[in-house]
Predict the structure of ArnT-like N-terminal domain-containing protein.
Amino acid sequence: MRRNTGFLALLGIALIVPLFAMMLIPLADTSEPRYAEIARLMYESGDWITPWFAPGNPFWGKPPLSFWLQAISMHIFGPTEFAARLPSWIATLLTLGLLYRCCATLFNATTARLAVLIYATCALSFVSSGAVLTDPFLALGTTLCMTGWIMAANSSGLFWRYSFFIGLVVGLLAKGPLILVLSGGAIVLWMLFYPQARRTIRSLPWLKGIALTFVLSAPWYLAAEFKTPGFLNYFFLGEHFLRFVDPGWKGDLYGTAHKAPFGTIWYYWLQASFPWGLAGLFILMKGLLKTKQRTAMRQRLSDPRLGYFLAWSLFTPLFFTLSGNILWTYILPSLGGFSICLAYACPQSSAEEHSAGQKTNYPWRASGPAFLAMIAPTAVVVLIAMVSYTPNLIKTEKLLVQHTRTTNPSGIPLYYLDEVPFSARFYSFESAKPLKEQEVTSKMSSGQSFWLAVPKNRLESARADLKNPVFASKRHNLYLINNPKQHALTARAKQTNLNEPITQ
């Protein structure tokens, strides 16, 4: 009872802290506000087929599941950062439920509790649970596939017979055919090393399942291609082939490719699984150095159940080892398998050792998991406090945009020199517009009042008469041009911390 209470307390902290972070930390450029703005445009336009990167510019980079859910959330809570982030939290909660049920059925409740705690507090899964990303939904789809496959062979119930195919639908509508590779590749890898596991293929209703997958996922792909021709070619050839084989791929329509040396994914694995990955490596090394523990490890690896979760945890980083165009978020779908493997490896969760009354001398026997589980939540609480005290700590234009509104009752337009950051687009509801340097003079000579946000790295090349900004974000200085109140506002700005909004 005491152990169960401690687990619930730790898990509650791991789930509640992201909820506060969703409300208190602004959207920081570039990924979060980019996806949030796509969802906001869907919410505003009512177009549920084509996600729009900007008005008139379709977004072909991702399927719409995450944008659908974020737009629905905005209908309920309004177009806020909390509404945009909440679906990721719910997806993580569902993932935790699947992991617990699967692990408790195949092993025991103690192992399941630890596995859930590990997943919830790995650095990547913890951060992504409160972020506007597509990856939590791919992770949910992968978890549905992987738990569904093995549970269909070890448990009864209609849900588990079809959850593999439901997972395929979620993955196809969240990220694309990558779900077929990540889940199918892990299962094939498992069967290569455990031939007896091949009989699990017969546990799934293949004809009905494939039909269900096609009926639920194919209509959107066909509708998207019909509405914006060229989508299928870009999405399948570009996003799912060229992005993988061509580091620094030049065809990306919505950003820049992330070129990294081959094998970087394992460094990202250490980041994504922190701090539990280091603990897992410690247990592995200790097991390899002692003969008795090597024997126990071989015995455990003979269990096809453990082999299944090991294949799940290893296939994703193995697959991306030869890709240079990667991000650390690519690791997320594999963390469910890793969490169960590590929980199983921990002696305190081993049913066999409990029943035999064996004494273990692992240093994390009592307080170790609690300490590791608190690292990510503590770090985010510290971040919340730092951002509240120093808003310019992160790259966001939220306060700058708010400043133009609180001191701008007459609707003076806001311009950004060169380009508008994604966070400014989101918080201004697309009212902030770009202004080229050669256009600044003509705009000033027109006599129209306007706000101008100038990148701080462009101040030396900007106009000499742009002095004494009235506000500053992390990356931009804000100027009020051609306004009779400009001098008064500038004088007040000298006496006000530029990190804080100036109100009239």
In short: The first strand starts at residue 52 and ends at 54.
